[in-house]
């Protein structure tokens, strides 16, 4: 590392290991210019290459620098100067005149801080933070790499530095800024080997070296698998960010998870994480999953392998690929069902059937069969052999999907034509795959503003179906909320203001219903942040608060209070609510309960 030149204040860089010493737990500098310690040791004159006069001039130049007497190699320099006939009086005068005592001044300042009551840890932190900034400002990757070229071994000072969290943090920042620096790569490897790999949170830093990335990946997987469902939910975003840093890191991560899914006691969790990664990063995971298929048992089924890789690469369920899969899975000895149970393949089938696309009649039953097969069939395998194939639910699921797709296709043309079919549609929604398909259809429908603008129903069919989805399947709550939020913020310029407000109020009622169905915290969090950002009309939030206060009963969790209390304490929001005696009463009751809860 290059040393910074400090002219006005104590600005000493301890990166080279020779200019910082530790006194009573504090780092004190004895180095104050850009010249390295080696500059203080003038080369020998054994070959007669330099005259005594030239050596004396070089010595005098170095001894004339500020605080030269504080340099570690000053005694060797004085000895060399004396051997070449230098004048002791001149040396004493130079060292005296150029002595400033910056290091001693720093030590004096430390003593004053102690007297003033500043703790030792705080003083040490101030000094380390200052030195960090100096190193970052003057760091030169070429000079840093030269350290290893000259020594060939790990410097002792580097091993001492990585023990302290402050310096490890510095190395992480430098490695991020200079990814091609050999010294930084080596240091990150050294930190990982020392057991601090869990601190390396930057994927770009870790991905530079396979060993470091493997360390971090294994640690992250342990976190995911150790805490059950809560562990996956809390650690998955961080894990996905690291795994999806690039296609290389994603392929490596998926390969390891695929291996765990085939041979580990955590097979189910590994499959779950693979599916979540595909959902979070569909653009990157599609190509990566095609490579993963080369590593899995699907390669033993060439026709299935070809059809699946084609669907993944083109991101569409073409009739040709679906026909191949239909023939394979409708045979007497079908391939493993897990090949088509991946979220990517299932979503391609759902999209093709329910996102307002015209499906050719001769191929429609093939799409429905494959979707029903993937949703309802399950198998048992032992030692690589299938011991059971359960297809009891296949026909019923297939029939439900067929009727639902036919009904929704009619609803796209005219909603009045499907009123007589709603009872059958609601009955079919007991199947999760049907609810997912209905949600997909609703999403495709409401994204067309023209469809919303011509609706005359008090509650559009799409919103009524979403209510039923919220009641039946809690795993689709997040998807329903996202769709409702999109509806609240969609541009409805082709509708008059009164119609817009009426429609959005109806959508807000669906959010209240979703809240009632158990999706409490995410809905409250959205309303809270909408109030802060003023992204929703106050009348809509006021309507939500009024409905929720009528609905809820004590006891309230701290999370609910922390989200709902700031909303009801907004005077601009709740003042109109006080005009209603009933709403005012529920508001007062909620505030009283919150007050008791906070006191206790």
Please tell me about this protein's structure:
The protein has about 600 residues and is mainly alpha-helical. It has helices at about 50-65, 75-85, 90-95, 100-115, 120-140, 140-150, 155-160, 165-175, 180-195, 205, 210-225, 230-245, 245-265, 265-280, 280-295, 300-315, 320-330, 345-355, 360-375, 395-415, 420-430, 430-445, 450-455, 460-470, 475-490, 495-515, 520-535, 540-550, 560-570, 570-575, 580-600, and strands at about 20-25, 25-30, 380, 385-390. The strands form two sheets. It has a two-stranded antiparallel sheet. Strands 3-4 form a two-stranded antiparallel ribbon. α5 (about 120-140) runs parallel beside α8 and α16 packs antiparallel against α17. The chain starts with 19 loop residues before the first strand and ends with a helix. About 30% of the residues are buried. Residues about 1-50 have low confidence and may be disordered.
């Amino acid at each position: 590392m290059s040393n910074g030149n400090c002219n006005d204040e104590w600005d000493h860089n301890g990166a080279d290991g020779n200019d910082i010493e530790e006194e009573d737990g504090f780092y004190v500098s004895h180095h104050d210019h850009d010249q390295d310690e080696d500059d203080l040791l003038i080369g020998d004159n054994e070959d007669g290459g330099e005259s005594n006069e030239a050596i004396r001039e070089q010595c005098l130049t170095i001894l004339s620098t500020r605080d030269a007497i504080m340099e570690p190699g000053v005694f060797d320099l004085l000895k060399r100067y004396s051997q070449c006939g230098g004048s002791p009086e001149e040396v004493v005068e130079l060292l005296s005149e150029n002595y400033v005592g910056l290091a001693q001044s720093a030590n004096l300042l430390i003593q004053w801080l102690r007297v003033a009551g500043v703790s030792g840890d705080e003083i040490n932190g101030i000094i380390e933070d200052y030195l960090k900034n100096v190193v970052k400002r003057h760091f030169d990757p070429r000079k840093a790499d030269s350290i290893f070229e000259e020594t060939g071994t790990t410097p002792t000072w580097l091993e001492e530095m990585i023990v302290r969290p402050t310096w490890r943090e510095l190395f992480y920042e430098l490695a991020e800024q200079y990814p091609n620096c050999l010294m930084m790569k080596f240091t990150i490897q050294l930190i990982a080997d020392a057991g601090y790999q869990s601190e390396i949170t930057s994927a770009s830093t870790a991905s530079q070296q396979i060993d470091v990335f493997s360390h971090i990946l294994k640690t992250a997987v342990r976190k995911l698998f150790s805490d059950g469902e809560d562990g996956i939910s809390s650690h998955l975003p961080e894990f996905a960010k690291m795994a999806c840093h690039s296609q290389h890191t994603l392929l490596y991560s998926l390969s390891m998870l695929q291996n765990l899914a085939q041979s580990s006691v955590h097979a189910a969790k590994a499959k779950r994480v693979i599916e979540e990664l595909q959902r979070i990063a569909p653009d990157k995971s599609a190509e990566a999953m095609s490579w993963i298929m080369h590593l899995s048992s699907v390669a033993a089924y060439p026709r299935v392998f070809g059809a699946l890789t084609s669907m993944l690469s083109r991101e569409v369920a073409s009739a040709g690929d679906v026909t191949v899969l239909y023939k394979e899975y409708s045979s007497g000895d079908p391939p493993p069902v897990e090949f088509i149970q991946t979220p990517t393949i299932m979503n391609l089938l759902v999209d093709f059937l329910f996102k307002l696309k015209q499906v050719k009649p001769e191929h429609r039953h093939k799409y429905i069969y494959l979707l029903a097969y993937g949703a309802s069939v399950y198998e048992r395998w032992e030692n690589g052999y299938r011991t059971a194939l359960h297809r009891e639910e296949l026909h019923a699921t297939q029939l439900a999907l067929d009727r639902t797709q036919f009904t929704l296709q009619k609803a796209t043309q005219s909603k009045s034509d499907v009123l007589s079919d709603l009872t059958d549609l609601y009955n079919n929604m007991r199947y999760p795959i049907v609810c997912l398909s209905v949600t997909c259809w609703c999403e495709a429908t409401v994204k067309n503003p023209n469809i919303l603008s011509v609706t005359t129903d008090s509650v559009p069919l799409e919103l009524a179906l979403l209510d039923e989805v919220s009641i039946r399947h809690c795993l689709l709550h997040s998807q329903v909320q996202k769709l409702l939020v999109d509806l609240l913020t969609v541009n409805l310029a082709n509708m008059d203001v009164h119609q817009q407000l009426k429609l959005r109020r109806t959508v807000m009622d669906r959010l209240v219903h979703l809240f009632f169905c158990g999706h409490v915290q995410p809905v409250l969090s959205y309303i809270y942040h909408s109030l802060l950002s003023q992204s929703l009309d106050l009348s809509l939030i006021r309507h939500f608060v009024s409905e929720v206060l009528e609905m809820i009963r004590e006891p309230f969790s701290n999370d609910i209070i922390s989200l709902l209390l700031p909303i009801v304490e907004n005077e601009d929001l709740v003042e109109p609510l006080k005009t209603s005696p009933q709403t005012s009463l529920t508001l007062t009751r909620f505030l009283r309960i919150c007050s008791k809860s906070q006191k206790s």
